[in-house]
Amino acid sequence: MLRTIAWRVPQIVATLVILSLVAYLAIGAMPGDPISLAMMADPRLGPEDVARMRALHGLDQPLLARWSAWATGVLRGEFGYSRLFARPAAEVLWPALRGSLVLLGTALALAAGIGVAAGMLAALRPRWRGVVDALALVSQAVPAFWLGILLIILFAVTLGWLPAGGVPDSGGVAETARFLVLPVATLAIAHLAAYARHTAAAMADVLRAPWITAARARGAPESRIAFRHALPNAAVPLLSLLALDAGGLVSGALITETVFARPGMGKLLTDAVMGSDQNLALLALLLVAGVTMLATLAADVAQRALDPRLAA
Amino acid sequence: MQTPPAAFPRRAAAILVSLMAGASLPAQAQAQAQTRDTLTIGIAQATGTFHPNIESMAAKAYILGFARRPLTGYGPDWRPACFACEAVPTVENGGVVLETMPDGKPGMRVTWRLREDGRWGDGRPVTAEDMRFAWEAGRAFETGFGGAEFYRSAYEFQSSDPRTVTLRFDKVNFEAGSAGGFEPLPAHIDRAIWEADRRNYRSRTAYDTDTANPGLYNGPYRIAAVQPGAGVTLERNAAWAGPAPAFRRINVRVVENSAALEAQLLAGQVDMIAGELGLSLDQAIALEKRARGRFRFEYRPGLVWEHLDLRMDQPPLSDIRVRQALMMAIDRSRIVGSLFENRQPVAATAIHPDDPMIDRSLAPWPFDLARAGALLDEAGWKPGPDGIRRNAAGARLSVDLQTTAGNRSRETVLQVIQGMWRAAGVEARIANQPPRVLFGEALSKRQFSGAVLFAWISSPENVPRSTLHSDEIPRAERNWSGQNYPGYSNPEMDALLEALPQELDADKRRPMWARLQAMTYRDLPALPLWHRAEPHVLPTWLEGVRPTGNMSPSSLWVTDWRVR
């Protein structure tokens, strides 16, 4: 286990360094730098003004030199300044990250809980299989933006029960929760199909195993067989799914954040890339990549712990 | 999942529904109670810096309209107006004095008298020292202020007392008195920060590091809290000496997706949507049909001029007959009628009908397919077997059409124009690009070959030097500066653009403006479409909001806003 971690951590660091370079070069090579856009906004900028502004922003330097300066700053703990938000990039990132963690964390927990329960129901009670499959199909087929808009029209505009979006200006947990209900429901419905289907398939496989038959022959109750024997074995493939979704926790949910006007990582990342905010875009990209890789590592370790055959 | 057959989940569902209903009732009651002292405004754009002189953004201008008073601006009648000063300086009132510079060239001296009751939110008076700081910081290029030309020209600052500010300019310019962008900055807060590190002032200014500091604001409100990317909260400025504003608090919420913005309006989360940067015109028209009784809709055609820039230094658009034919092949009245319900006027030139210098003798180019065809025939483009015209060499009459991808309204307009041009035998190939690419590369580096649909925003009587002077054609050796993207080059126009700003007499400027309009009307470096209207969606109980249609946002007159 420790050997796995010791081997993978340097790989993750190397990947992040390469990713930062590739992302920096890609964003830097995109057409339309900040000065070109400033020239559109201020017709009185002359050639000398443009040259000075490029020098002021360091845009007269080669991309590689700019990346090197940026990387040196990061090693010192300086993540640069967000051009779009006129604040340090890290200061802009944290509220968006918090928003995404709360939104996606709640939605993921709900989706995983309901999805696993539905999957187990389908595996343990075959007559429910059709219902669970149909619900999973609908949940996968409905686009999140469409579902979000439908929920807004019904619960916010027509019934007036819940806010249409945004975040509360103030208020406690209850008010925060009210603002979360619709976006969380939208995301949870979109995600639960995968958990339901994977759980149903994995549980069905495990329930056909000879050792389950043996347990039944020994007279073990069905609930014990399901929760103590079948579920832990069926959970191994689910961990991979969870690891991938954990990466999504920090990358945000662009469509849901947009439809519900919630600040989050998805929208922040898109705005940063499209708005030539290199410092912010890089910091967000590296965070997403780092968390995804660490979550995958954690899932691998957990899988090995659950299934010793993998460790071997 | 939501209606399981067990008793407990059914009870839980009932409790959840009652909780939601219960939670909503106090919220609604609270919202109604707050209606009279809190106003929530939805806007569709986030703002970055709150510094008034760094970066030009409509969202920032709108928010700062509540919290700051610039030196001058434009009123709803489009005349120059004073906010932090007593009167707009003119030759007649002695505020503008012509003089000869030490090098013998003509220059001018402009004097503003600051209002006696001007106060920052911490109680300190707004003085000439605040203007001096703004001028010094603007003159130092490394500070990175906008309006570099203004500060370059204003070579000397003078002040005889704390309320008198005089700038000396190295050239005569009738716009100097309106001092666009020259605003008081709180020297007692920001000067030390600027002097400590001028190069990094733009990231260390108190406007961004201590945004809720009352001393930064001299308007009826002050920014009390900022939610980055999500909005700001404004509260009354205790030191404001002018008429008291009606609302204790104003929340400005940023909802960048217009469908979500509309939903929040209908759900009662926002009271109004600012016309300056809210819904698009077609969305507002559609909303009005569904919610006419609930809200008041006001449409104000403004200084945003939608047009097609033509690449006129390349064939076939280098031929004036082709450009005129393309103009007459677009039925703009029909487009404005069918897509925008005639809410925005068809443009004759870039000059808005409400601009004091409009030449009303110029009617918009008519839609005339027969004349368009005759002009194309004369230019050597004859109809081909597939309906597309060809020249003697057999080349098809094709024009690339571009606009900002994702802007549904413009994309629709472009498709309509494509169809109309086809009826005249012109093939239009649409190739839209993301705004960043279109504005940052295709236009600014003149990498387009046909026509680009976009908009310019200007101020009243704004001399269009940057878009029409031949020196302003972007070229690599000029670092791609300038906005004359069509490549218009006309010595008479160049001379006019140089003479026009130096004429201080408005009556003498009028014929010059008429000549300028006649030339652009004839030469068509850009095909004028219409002057875009701002759709303001207001609650029926709010009155006094006066959409301006110009660069000065309606929020500057917030003290006139009243609950009916």
TrEMBL record, chain B:
It is found in: Periplasm. Keywords: Signal, Transport. GO terms for biological process: peptide transport. One of its GO terms (molecular function) is peptide transmembrane transporter activity. One of its GO terms (cellular component) is ATP-binding cassette (ABC) transporter complex. InterPro entries: Peptide/Ni-bd (IPR030678), SBP_5 (IPR039424), SBP_5_dom (IPR000914). Residues 1-29 form the signal peptide. Residues 107-460 form the Solute-binding protein family domain. It comes from the Bacteria. Belongs to the bacterial solute-binding protein 5 family. This is Peptide ABC transporter substrate-binding protein. It comes from Roseomonas indoligenes.
